[in-house]
């Protein structure tokens, strides 16, 4: 049976891509953010994953508002990124794992998570940047399965629903007959708001409570409605739903391997956590 | 009065390229404090009372309970469909170019309504949101002009870009 060796949850601000392209990792503005990642790479070198299931939200690259799935999953043998409007650099394609994708689809739909299946999918910065932060040489040593959560157009899935999706993903992976080692990533957040007269809203107190809850009280955020999450974390802070999916794939008891929190990158409070199942 | 639709702006549009004009209009706030090329725009901005921003402020609305925030729901999605569809097209560099080359024709092609067309003309983010624009799609529109999220944040909050950055830093406390 395949195993989930841990989760990586991180922010995915587009500006990170610009900083990587310009080699600004040691720039004083960027250093506190990029310095969060060497311990993640050391952990990855130790746990040697074969597969990354990457949970994120599309920002209007693969999905437009003509068809907006609440949950979608990639089932392709390869995923590429593309211009999102700023002429961002393209990166090496990511290998997919259609067999695992279809296994996930079968078992998730079997558990009444009726995802949209995508045999073609372009992946945006919310997928590519966390990968590039984990593997800066951009020679991806893993196969990937993208899972997309709608954080764009309300109604959004609740935090509780996202957490349960994660639990169902975990059951499915554990039932996979292969012996692969899987890391689940959840990207986005933490608190930020790009739009409205409340633009620039950041809530450090909420973010730190949320990060603490990821360790020993994983259902904490499920007490909040989406509107309450917007109020507490900003219109784009609700991307923490992707963290909830990732956390749901872990057992209740976890060990924190690493964490980082920095304000601000662009308009965003950035968070980073690596969790492992507690033995 | 509209700071971007004012007669100086119209006069400029005859003398500078559309793209330059866009940059100037959008960067009105971010360049505040700089008495250089954006000076005239700043005056236009200062002369413009904050009425527009107040108009865009959500009032007590059970559907939009978070102050200063428009949750992008079905009502917004319906209202903003044409605008967001145009912004979605800006994923493609050739479409960004086509917009810059002939903005009127490009907006007409996507069937923007009068409110949306004016908001686009004004490069005013709060107006664009009011017209149904979604932040993730509007970011692609802003990208045409090389604007970052601090430019956009400054414009919406009535701060200079430096003031907006200071606001972000203050969240560390």
Description:
The complex is a heterodimer of chains A (279) and B (173). Chain A has 279 residues and is an alpha/beta fold. Chain A has one domain: LigB-like (Protocatechuate 4,5-dioxygenase, Chain B, 3-Layer(aba) Sandwich). Helix content of chain A is 33%, strand content 22%. Chain A has an eight-stranded mixed sheet, sandwiched between helices. Chain A has a two-stranded antiparallel sheet with strand order 4-5. In chain A, a hairpin with a 2-residue loop joins β9 and β10. In chain A, α4 packs across α6 and α6 packs parallel to α9. Chain A is globular and about 45 Å long. With 173 residues, chain B is mainly alpha-helical. Chain B is built from 13 helices and no strands. In chain B, α7 packs across α8. At the A-B interface, α8 of A face α6, α10, α11, α12 and α13 of B.
Fold blueprint:
The complex is a heterodimer of chains A (279) and B (173).
Chain A: E1 3-10, H1 14-21, H2 31-34, H3 38-47, E2 51-56, E3 71-74, E4 78-79, E5 94-95, H4 98-110, E6 116-118, H5 125-134, E7 143-149, H6 159-174, E8 181-187, H7 204-216, H8 226-233, H9 240-248, E9 254-265, E10 268-277
Parallel strand pairs in A: 1-8, 2-7, 2-8, 3-6
Antiparallel strand pairs in A: 1-10, 3-7, 4-5, 9-10
Helix pairs in contact in A: 4-6, 6-9
Chain B: H1 7-15, H2 18-26, H3 39-47, H4 51-56, H5 74-79, H6 81-89, H7 93-101, H8 103-109, H9 114-122, H10 125-130, H11 135-144, H12 149-157, H13 161-170
């Amino acid at each position: 049976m395949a195993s989930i060796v841990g989760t990586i949850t991180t922010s995915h601000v587009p500006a990170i891509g610009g900083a990587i392209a310009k080699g600004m990792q040691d720039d004083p503005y960027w250093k506190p953010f990029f310095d969060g990642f060497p311990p993640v790479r050391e952990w990855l070198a130790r746990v040697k994953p074969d597969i990354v299931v990457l949970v994120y939200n599309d920002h209007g690259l693969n999905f437009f508002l003509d068809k907006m799935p609440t949950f979608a999953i990639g089932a392709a043998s390869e995923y590429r990124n593309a211009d999102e409007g700023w002429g961002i650099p393209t990166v090496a394609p990511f290998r997919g794992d259609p067999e695992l994708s279809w296994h996930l689809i079968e078992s998730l739909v079997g558990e009444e998570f009726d995802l949209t299946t995508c045999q073609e999918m372009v992946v945006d910065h919310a997928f590519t940047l966390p990968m590039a932060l984990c593997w800066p040489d951009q020679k991806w040593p893993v196969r990937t399965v993208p899972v997309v959560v709608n954080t764009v157009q309300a109604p959004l899935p609740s935090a509780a629903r996202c957490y349960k999706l994660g639990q169902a993903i975990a059951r499915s992976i554990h039932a996979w007959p292969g012996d692969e080692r899987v890391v689940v990533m959840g990207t986005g957040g933490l608190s930020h708001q790009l739009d409205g007269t409340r633009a620039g809203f950041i809530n450090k107190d909420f973010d730190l409570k949320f990060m603490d809850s990821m360790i020993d009280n994983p259902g904490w955020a499920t007490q909040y409605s989406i509107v309450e999450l917007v109020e507490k974390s900003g219109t784009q802070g609700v991307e923490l739903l992707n963290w909830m999916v990732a956390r749901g794939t872990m057992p209740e008891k976890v060990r924190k391997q690493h964490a980082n929190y920095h304000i601000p990158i662009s308009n965003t409070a950035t968070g980073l956590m690596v969790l492992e199942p507690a033995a | 009065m509209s700071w971007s639709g004012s007669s100086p702006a119209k006069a400029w549009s005859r003398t500078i390229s559309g793209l330059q004009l866009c940059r100037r209009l959008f960067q009105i706030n971010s360049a505040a404090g700089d008495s250089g090329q954006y000076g005239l725009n700043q005056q236009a901005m200062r002369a413009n009372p904050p009425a527009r921003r107040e108009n865009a402020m959500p009032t007590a609305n059970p559907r939009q309970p978070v102050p200063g925030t428009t949750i992008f729901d079905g009502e917004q999605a319906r209202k903003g469909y044409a605008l967001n569809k145009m912004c979605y097209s800006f994923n493609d560099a050739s479409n960004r170019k086509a917009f810059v080359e002939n903005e009127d024709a490009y907006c007409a092609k996507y069937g923007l309504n009068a409110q949306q067309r004016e908001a686009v003309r004004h490069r005013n983010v709060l107006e664009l949101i009011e017209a149904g624009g979604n932040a993730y799609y509007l970011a692609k529109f802003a990208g045409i002009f090389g604007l970052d999220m601090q430019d956009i944040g400054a414009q919406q909050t009535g701060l200079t870009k430096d003031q907006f950055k200071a606001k972000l830093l203050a969240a560390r406390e």
